[in-house]
Design brief:
The complex is a heterodimer of chains A (385) and B (228). Chain A is of the alpha/beta class and 385 residues long. Chain A is 35% helix and 13% strand. Chain A contains ten helices and twelve strands. Chain B has 228 residues and is an alpha+beta fold. The longest helix of chain B is centred in the first third of the chain and has 9 residues, at 3-11. Chain B has helices spanning 3-11, 25-32, 43-46, 106-110, 156-161, and strands at residues 85-87, 97-102, 118-123, 134-141, 148-153, 164-178, 190-195, 204-214, 217-227. Helices cover 14% and strands 32% of the residues of chain B. Chain A binds chain B through residues 118-121, 124-126, 128-129, 153, 155, 157-158, 180-182, 184, 254-259, 262-263, 266, 286-287, 290, 298-299, 339-345, 380-381, 383-385, and chain B through 13, 15-24, 40-41, 43-44, 46-48, 50-58, 90, 175, 186-188, 209-212, 214-216, 219, 221.
């Protein structure tokens, strides 16, 4: 039986979410902007979902803008840094998702100055580095809440405080973190927050941007003025309903899921390290997502792709880093390079990410199979301690 | 509830997020009395205890200090040519570790080379052209590809215990430690280096394709070897 350990790439849709979405495809297909009964029903469903997402984040419903993806939410947020009307400066980190890094590059081409804050060997951004990088024309600080490759959880409250003291907006790409780490945006100094449904057992093709009351953004998609004019296009009602239910389930079950996933994560790490002493954990040991395991095998880093394929043959689905980077798998990971890994070691991460539906039996099966496959890998050298 | 526990509970955020592995902040607080280090698991409370990041340097520069013999290195070989570091052998090995392949790789299988075998041979031609016959003991053997890892030793062992003569071989790589260097070592770069035990004390060159900081020094692997 196949074992899916790639929940950071995407999660299986929770059957309760599937059931909630089902009526909105065929029977209740109305456009939320229509004035008739079907339209009103659709509008109600969208607003219910908005309230569900807001509740998960400790925000007000009107502060939630639905988008088609986490990437779109990131683009919409960063569009607030406009370089055409005077000097503008953006602070981000070296290990952001491409949705931020590539958008920052595009802004750079339009005259925005960009600072990419370094991370330490555990993958954490020091809030004081952000504080020291601020300039009078810094418009925004954008630091991800949790990293997709190594699972490290950033101190976003402290970083947000540093941004606020400098008078800059603070955005966080929380695509990996929402549903796994607690947010209370009524109190946290976060102005903008991106999330994606398919990372929390919801459907693909729907995301959201939290926009704190009082923060002014410009739309990047123009049209009929849906979503308070910030995201024109007829709402993806079924998707939005799915996101809402996924958020409600996360709010109700996050703590139990986290306790269970943290225990499974530690069981997996201990089991693999016991059989493979050369295995090392990448990313902060405690400040990491509950189900996120990122491993390197000293001396065998160059074989990560081979290991991945062997795991797949054995029915275990994992990844070497980010799914978004899979097409560039031959290149060293920029995230691991930022942690100080040399180009050889930076090719060697094995990412095993657990989710709501993984079981202890699956973890034990992985512990049984993985060391055998690692033993078959070529070793460029045996690492000394 | 003890005073300590009350304080610990008050110090926790009350988010009951489960990330620490405990269902509630109160459950974590109860454990903190016995295991204060568990506070590291709380993402809300560990943030203000983050160490100042030490951004890892992409390369390692080990002090080119004065060696145990007391003489500062001149960084020149016996022909006056400059080099960047000394390559030392691993302390647990009987001599410098080399990855070699007989000119006829089938010899590894035909001669049934096995771990522990004493062998002699001469590194002919390309990689790395040393004119001296070497002796050593096999520590890893891959009969599928013919590749042998051996540690180069003196001739006493082969003289007393016998040996297998593999004739000419190609030195494909070295593994060892860098404890003295005058340059930053980066993976992917080619360096001139001096194997500490090279009988001719000639510099070699090679490409660093593996690095690992160990307690004994910077462990490296070098391939693409040439003398000079």
């Amino acid at each position: 039986m196949a074992i899916y350990l790639d929940n950071s790439a995407t999660t299986p849709v929770d059957p309760r979410v599937v059931a909630a979405m089902e009526p909105w495809h065929a029977q209740a297909f109305g456009n939320p902007s229509s004035l008739h009964t079907l339209g009103r029903q659709a509008r109600e469903a969208v607003e219910t979902a908005r309230a569900q997402v807001a509740a998960l984040l400790g925000a007000r419903p009107r502060e939630i803008v639905f988008t088609a993806s986490g990437t779109e939410a990131d683009n919409l947020a960063l569009a607030a840094v406009d370089g055409t009307s005077g000097a503008a400066h953006l602070i981000t980190s070296a290990i952001e998702h491409p949705a931020i890094l590539e958008t920052a590059r595009a802004l750079e081409r339009r005259g925005v100055a960009v600072t990419r804050a370094p991370v330490d060997a555990d993958g954490l951004v020091d809030p004081s580095v952000v504080r020291d990088s601020v300039k009078p024309h810094t418009r925004m600080v954008s630091i991800m809440a949790a990293n997709n490759v190594i699972g490290a959880i950033q101190p976003v409250t402290e970083i947000g405080q540093a941004a606020r003291e400098a008078g800059a907006l603070f955005h966080t790409d929380a695509v990996q973190a929402v549903g796994k780490t607690p947010f209370n945006l009524a109190e946290q100094p976060i102005d903008l927050l991106s999330l994606s449904a398919h990372k929390l057992h919801g459907p693909k093709g729907v995301g959201a941007l939290y926009v704190r009351d009082g923060v002014t953004l410009s739309p990047i998609i123009h049209g009929g003025g849906q979503e308070r004019g910030l995201r024109s296009a007829t709402e993806n009602v079924a998707g939005v309903v799915g996101l809402g239910v996924a958020a409600e389930l996360a709010a109700a079950e996050m703590a139990d899921d986290n306790v269970r996933l943290t225990a499974l994560r530690e069981r997996l790490i201990a089991g693999v390290q016991s059989a493979c002493p050369q295995a090392y954990v990448i990313g902060h040991r405690q400040r990491r997502l509950p189900g996120h395991v990122c491993l390197g095998f000293a001396g065998q880093e160059g074989e990560a792709i081979r290991l991945l394929l062997a795991l797949d043959e054995a029915g275990i689905m994992a990844s070497t880093g980010s799914a978004c980077g899979a097409s560039h798998a031959a290149e060293p990971s920029y995230v691991l390079r930022a942690l100080g890994f040399d180009p050889f070691r930076a090719r060697g991460a094995l990412r095993l990410t657990l989710g709501r539906f993984n079981t202890e039996a699956e973890v034990d099966r992985t512990i049984e199979i993985l060391p055998t496959l690692v033993g078959d890998l070529r070793r460029i050298a045996t690492a000394r301690r | 509830m003890s005073v300590t526990r009350e304080l610990a509970a008050a110090d926790l955020p009350g988010a009951n997020c489960g990330l620490c592995g405990f269902r509630t902040c109160g459950a974590l607080a109860e454990q903190l009395e016995k295991r204060p280090d568990l506070i590291k698991r709380c993402i809300a409370r560990s943030a203000d205890r983050l160490a100042t990041p030490t951004v890892a340097a992409p390369a390692a520069r080990q002090d080119a200090g004065v060696p145990p013999g007391g003489v500062a290195p001149t960084w020149r070989d016996t022909l006056g040519r400059e080099f960047d570091f000394y390559l030392e052998h691993f302390p647990e090995d009987p001599g410098p570790r080399e990855i070699i392949i007989p000119h006829n790789p089938m010899l590894t299988r035909e001669m049934e080379i096995a771990v522990g075998d004493l062998m002699i041979g001469r590194p002919l031609g390309m990689s790395c052209g040393c004119p001296i016959t070497h002796c050593g003991v096999a520590i890893e053997v891959d009969r599928r590809t013919g590749v042998i890892v051996w540690c180069v030793t003196g001739p006493l062992g082969p003289r007393e215990k016998g040996f297998k003569d593999i004739g000419y071989y190609i030195a494909e790589g070295y593994e060892g430690l860098i404890t003295q260097t005058r340059d930053e070592i980066e993976i992917g770069r080619r360096y001139f280096f001096q194997p500490r035990r090279c009988m001719l004390q000639w510099r070699h060159s090679g490409l660093v394709n593996y690095m690992n900081r160990s307690g004994d020094g910077l462990q490296v692997r070098l391939e693409g070897l040439w003398i000079g």
